[in-house]
Prior knowledge:
The chain is α+β, with helices and mostly antiparallel strands.
Amino acid sequence: MNTLIIGSGGREHTIAHKIAQSKLANNLFIAPGNAGTSKLGTNLPINITDFKILKQAILKHKIDFVFVGPEAPLVNGIHNFILNDKDLKHINVFGPQQKAAQLEGSKEFSKEFLYRHNIPTAKYQSFTTKSLEKGYLFLETLKPPYVLKADGLAAGKGVLILNNLQEAKTELKEMLTNQKFGKASNKVVIEEFLNGIELSCFVVTDGKSYKVLPYAKDYKRINEGDKGLNTGGMGAVSPVPFADAVFLNKVEKRIIKPTINGLQKDNLPYKGVLFIGLIKVNNEPFVIEYNVRFGDPETEVIIPRIKSDLLELFNAVAEEKLDQYHLEIDDRTVTTVMLVSGGYPELYEKNKEIFGLENVTESIVFHAGTRLKNNKVFTNGGRVLAITSYGKNSKEAMKKAYKSIKNISFDQMNYRTDIGFDL
Ligand code: AMP
Ligand code: GLY
């Protein structure tokens, strides 16, 4: 199969790495890709939000299968575009159609879905400028902290958690009337705060049956001990020791099954992966959010734990034969540590040369924000490299990671030294 991967991060490099090992793999293209993906296939420097240009690339390179990494093209209907185009409709796409992608594209849509199908989640109400006063009254019925979520996509920044009622009211007004997150906050979901420990669940589905991939935990804060600003993710671990069999049975029964059934009942065709952000509150699972794609950096730890063929898995999804696919999982622990640019998640510089990658022997280096210039690798984003290592437990895997990291350097490189510290 000639495959096109859409995206340019650590997630896409990891998927490319695994697809390149597939017995079904033929030519591999990545749009736009990064320095890491350029070693596995051909990077296409095209604007992925322009579906017409994407169509030209798909036809030119005789693509059979499109894997969509990030959420934006899915929410913008890339799957429908391909399905509805007479020249492209035979091409298989991994990622849901636009209607189901609203599970990530609209917080209100996903909360309504969760409520409709009786899936445990935080209680909520949603508000617009017109109902601002009602929003204030709803906040008064809740206990702090207060959770405010922009309804639409806000590049992972649209959620505010506030300790003080007055501050929550001020921010609600900022979001609704002053468009703090642009159009994304024309509607705001206010939620009850859930106190617990989070984990990421990935369910691949062809719309009929499903397979649960390894669970992972991601470390979102910039500083050690889970302190400081939120980032895209500073590291991840799989499996998750606190997710024991009893808890995971509850997740499957109360969350995964009703979600897959709900998609069918609501006539939301889904061929792809559903990322369920979970929180464990006193041993009970609740849904924090749905995403309609793989997580990053979770992908960098869950894909290396899949022993079976990934393109065969994606093909089984496309052909609606997922029930016949045998998913084989490596029971070792995998960790990933993100090397980021100094200053990230706030202002940071790009274009720093990266040294020493060739000296890493005990870990896999997945590129996130990198680019190739004159055969040298330079930084090209906040999150730069994901250092993935195997071990019999997270401690052993982390030891390898830090040994590997000692070989790598770029100006103002930063990373967390405590990924997995709480497990
Ligand atoms: P979301 O984009 O909905 O995943 O929210 C971003 C982050 O905010 C989550 O990963 C949680 O850490 C936190 N969060 C969101 N909703 C809640 C909630 N109801 N209770 C506690 N924390 C939350
Ligand atoms: N790691 C969280 C995300 O990909 O949204």
